[in-house]
Amino acid sequence: MRMRRNFGVFAIIIISEVINITSGAFFVDNSFAEIYAFSIRPYIYPDTPLTAISCQRLWEIQFFRIMPGAMKRGNYSMRTRRFFYVCLRLLAWSSAALLCCALIAGELAAEENSPILLVTGEWAPYASEKLEGFGFYTAIVTAVLREMHREPAYKFYPWKRCELLVQKGDAFAAFPYSYTEERAAAYLYSEALANSSIDKLWYDTRRHPEMHIETLEDLRRYKVAGIAGYWFLEYFQQHDIPYHYVDTEELAFRKLVAGSLDIIPLDILVTKELLNRLYPEDIKYFGMLDMPEYKTIPLHLLVSKTYPNAEILLPQFNAAFRKIVKNGVYAQILQQYGVEELSIATSPK
């Protein structure tokens, strides 16, 4: 019975020390000593008056009380007292360290198993909540993350909100985005996963039966749409081409039909998706011209600078993308969606 009680006392002492080490309270004030003395001490040492005594003395009393016959109370040297006191403290510190390591390891394991949040908007066929796999660009992102042994969690929002969530660190990345100097100041970029070719100009043949655009200067004669977030806004600004700002592609086409706009520069795949959805009976009335001086635009992930472990995840993401390009998974996705022409021009370096 005595040994069982002594073991219980010893356990209480160790646990108390560990709790105080991990919480930052190291038995340093008499107020805690009073609580200790009035709550635990009476069960261990019932023949001693309940008074607030020093914490170190409490430790010594309780520790040497349970020493099985090695010493009698009060009959031990100062060196022995110090030795056992130090041993007890070291044991408590070791227990606290192991406890902290276990907690940290558990948090890291949980974080590694948790899905990575990415945000995007409606931009079919690149990304769309209505398409299989959420669009071909989303399918590429999913394949990359699974190559990393991670799972994605996708949320669809307006583009401005996507950028805000990434900037605040609430989401790892938004996609797909072209590179601009303005964005580069606030975000990180992944390697380009696919290309976009804004090489077409769209107009309503009912209003402009014969439209001819040979140079960028010819655009000045028309009301040209400037869709929020597109790289060509910066391009138009550099060449001093006026444009009419609109928030979405859908709004741009509605204004085109209403006569508020004359020309919309837009990707041919995105335009086909929009016209099939908005004006399936009137597709024949929309004309298409080649964009003068167009260029192919690589599309990236816009990555947060403040998302947890983003500086680790981004290099892993780029490395995993190079792997799926090398093993053929990337080509299979593009072929599945019929967009092989949007493949990156060369394999990632």
From TrEMBL:
A Pfam family assignment: SBP_bac_3
Q: Which top-rank group of organisms is this from?
A: Bacteria
Where are its TM segments located?
A: 7-28
Q: State if ATP-binding is listed as a keyword.
A: no
Kindly state which keywords UniProt assigns to this record, in alphabetical order.
Membrane, Signal, Transmembrane, Transmembrane helix
SUPFAM superfamilies registered for this protein in UniProt: Periplasmic binding protein-like II
The record's listing under InterPro entries reads:
Solute-binding_3/MltF_N
**Domain (Solute-binding protein family 3/N-terminal): residue spans on this chain:** 121-338
Name of this chain's protein: Extracellular solute-binding protein, family 3
